[in-house]
């Protein structure tokens, strides 16, 4: 199976209910392995992030109300500042860049692998957002940080691009 | 701005009752709720039939919990309403009971909180919106971030934070209704596993089972039912607020608390200097320090020192969380806000035994619920 730019090679296990195999072959090989080349993983959070062609720097999908207020995550319900309905806001994208104002490490979680780092970032565009951070020991309050994509595997093993914030000079 | 309770009929707390807060148990919610309500009715010394309405705060029980257990008090036909408001469910139930009496709709009203530890069904998960931090942002992480900020800005130390747990676990050791009843040393608190940042396990509240009940009454009902006025603190402010937009370099829970408290002081025409005893939403140790400052008991950045100097200890300038607070008395959700009123009432009556704050005249109960919402009640000791 080939499509898109050959970036990652995967071994995919398939169950043999496949018409390409004869009944005898299926009996002899209840499972077989198929090598396939797929395109680059897609964004895990397409509602929050966008990626411009040719760029590796993710942008944050937001909406700007007629009053100027920015909503991230983007939502069309209405403006928290002035109450205008969402139709009166417009899509915009924000640079995933700003200043780290607080950070901490989480050591106990019922589902996620630990430890991992969490931070609050005041974006250059204004809003303060909570983000997952890389484990770069250079991260500290006051440092400039930026979002960086990385390939993440979910519980089923499916790969997708997720975003962590790290030191700005290492994100670009 | 509305005048609030000050413009309405006086409301008095006449009965309190609790079922011990405890780890998730086999005890049925009906038994939990009835234990608290029966204790409150007995404490008030009134017949159940005198109660005109009940406000039931619960997060986990589901539809129609109120009548399902209150019927076994005797099916008197009283008005029953159920409220859910996250951690502030009990505080909301208490406010509704106060409004019943203050407005003249009830002469005697019950507020009861009851819950069993269980997964919660949250509306915020149904908006179709997500966040970058997603499930990684557990509550302990959100508050550890605040702790990190306070340490960075004001030089708060991990010992300052751990002292909140030492004080509150010490208070809870003398509270027979507390989830945890064991005094802890600073070393013990610091030695516990860290959940997030500097917050160790004993600096995060336990969530379990429990129930708490409070009965409020009008002046007329107190006379008619022969209730002892000297055991009936008056509710002098009830303020509920929800989050607004705040500057990026502030924490919403702190700003929301600050403005809710300001309105409560205004409603009661008092200030923080008059507080003798306080119960706050100390689900995590950092919160007590932040709210000590937000209540105006000390300046910003001084909360850690204020505690270290013993000012919030029982016998100090203003006892904070003499019950043990959410950290050690526990946080069973629905009961928590009602349980705070039980403790403040006990203190203002002078009936708190070894946990008694000397000469307690004015008490404050503060609760935050995710979303966020904030409730502040002020009570004054009987004359």
Parts with pLDDT < 50 across at least 5 consecutive residues of chain A: 1-19, 32-38
User: What overall geometry of chain A do the principal axes of the alpha carbons give?
Assistant: globular
**Overall body shape of chain B:** globular
| Biggest sheet strand line-up of chain B | 3-2-4-7-1-8-12-11-9-10
Query: Total helix count of chain B?
Result: 12
Strand order of the largest sheet of chain A: 9-8-7-10-11
Succession of helices and strands of chain B:
EHEHEHEHHHEEEHEHEHHEHHEE
Q: Helix share of residues of chain A?
A: under 10%
Mean pLDDT of chain B: 97
Number of strands of chain A: 11
Report the total helices of chain A.
Answer: 2
Q: Note the beta-strand portion of chain B.
A: 15-25%
* Residues in helix, % of chain B: 25-40%
Largest sheet of chain B: 10 strands, mixed
> Roughly what is the average pLDDT of chain A, rounded to an integer?
83
**Distance between the terminal alpha carbons of chain B, to the nearest Å?**
29 Å
Write a short abstract of this structure.
The complex is a heterodimer of chains A (172) and B (383). Chain A is mainly beta and 172 residues long.
Write the layout of secondary structure elements.
The complex is a heterodimer of chains A (172) and B (383).
Chain A lengths: L7 E8 L7 H6 L2 E8 L10 E2 L8 E7 L4 E2 L17 E7 L1 E10 L9 E8 L4 E6 L10 E10 L5 E9 H4 L1
Antiparallel strand pairs in A: 1-2, 3-4, 4-5, 4-6, 7-8, 7-10, 8-9, 10-11
Chain B lengths: L10 E12 L6 H16 L8 E5 L7 H6 L8 E5 L5 H15 L4 E8 L23 H16 L3 H15 L13 H6 L2 E3 L2 E2 L8 E9 L1 H7 L8 E9 L9 H17 L8 E3 L5 H10 L8 H6 L10 E2 L4 H4 L5 H16 L12 E8 L3 E8 L3
Parallel strand pairs in B: 2-3, 2-4, 9-10, 9-11
Antiparallel strand pairs in B: 1-7, 1-8, 4-7, 5-6, 8-12, 11-12
